[in-house]
Amino acid sequence: MLVAEVRACIEAHAMLPPGAKVVVAVSGGVDSMALLLALFQLRSVYNMTLIVAHVNHQLRGEEAEQDALFVEQQAVRLGLSFHQTCVDVKALQQSSGISVQQAARQLRYRFLLDVHQALNATRIALGHTADDQAETLLMRLVRGSGPAGFAGIPAVRLPFIRPLITVARPAIYSYLHSERCPWVEDSSNAYPVYLRNRVRLDLLPKLQQYNPQLVRRLNELADMLRAESQVLEQQVDEWALQTLAWQARSRVEICCRLFGLAPVAIQRRLLRRVIEALATSPEAVGFRHIERLRQFMVSGNQERQCSLPGEIGVERRAETILLWNVSRPPDIPCILTLPVPGKVDIVPLNLRLTADVMPKPCYLGRVNPHWALLDLDRIVCPLQVRFRQPGDRFHPLGAPGSKKLQDFFVDTRIPRGERPYVPLVVHNREIVWVVGHRIAEPFKLRLETNRVLRLQCCTLQEAHS
User: Fold this and answer.
1) 432: burial class by Cβ within 10 Å (0-12, 13-18, 19+)?
2) Given a cut of 70, is residue 292 above it in pLDDT?
3) Once rounded to an integer, what is the mean pLDDT over residues 205-231?
4) Residue 384 bridge partners (DSSP)
5) By three-state DSSP, how is residue 371 classified?
6) Which of 82, 141, 198, 433 has the largest CB neighbor count within 10 A?
7) Domain spanning 248-325: CATH 3.40.1710
8) What is the pTM (predicted TM-score) of this model?
9) Which CATH number describes the domain made up of 335-464?
């Protein structure tokens, strides 16, 4: 019965291509042993090659070593190759500040991916069950989560597959007893210090008194929300193409006008996607932070900044909002050459600078911070584009003399985290344009100007449109 249910799950989610080489994560517990045995019994159906992988987290001393020996013996009994490792969970937990369970998960997945890559495997099979799905939803309900969180554990997230995700734990025990398959018990599963254990041992049984079919109902809820979430995420993809201009995954500029046209649900998911890509600790950014940022973007007020946790900087521009991770600078080049006429792309910042020569204009139109008009007769070409350096000085247009570039940044209220990424157009080591902000006084247009150098800055998307 269980093997048939596992096969139905594999077929429903197209988990296994023919001839798949599958790394099976086996702890030795009831779920992973059922997973291993079921896949072993189905190996001829899919012409599978199975590889057993085990991680000793070194948290339970002799017991953990006995578990590793048990899994190795089971692999030998089935005639399967066996790979194991020992990881230092406590060291990672102490160095990163995450929980013991998070650290163990990170190291376990890292090892599984390493084995997968080294052996050129096709899939990695994990032993999550329907009960794990129900526990996950209850944990997220207790901690707080959005609709995407209640979509639960996916059956497939390549290369990971979860063939037991529709199987309840009583069926797993019944299967192992009928097959006379042994397993080991992890004593840490009884520790009440872990939230999942408290949910499994206390909360879930109490709720099942109200509805004995609660595990099934929670799995159905996860299935429904996952399908609906996929539809919404497709819409988010479409809105993201229109509203987001990424800069090397460490900065993003969002068009406020287009963002404001999106439904509120799309706005929130769009911002959550941005935060997860940018934040050092995305879990620190909760609903109230997302909502504050959303209101900041659609309100139309003139506040320049919005505070967010997770080391996220937020700044209002003329028609956009810029978000960036202040601790994760993009890999920007030191010095670029800007020919006249010509162009140069600053790919990590998603920017293009262009230069061309034009006759002295009779009408300049309204001032635009994204272009500059300079006296070409006072400039030696080609120009250089670089970023701030110690000791930089700048003579802003209209100022009586030069000042430290740092002081200009402060006076202009350029946020601290943004200053290292402001491009500078330079001639003979002298700054002629702080891009997007001000030209230098010595290079402004005069009555006697004959040739005008026009510099423009735009995003790469604008340049290609």
Assistant:
1) buried
2) yes
3) 93
4) 337, 426
5) strand
6) 433
7) no
8) 0.70
9) 3.50.40.10
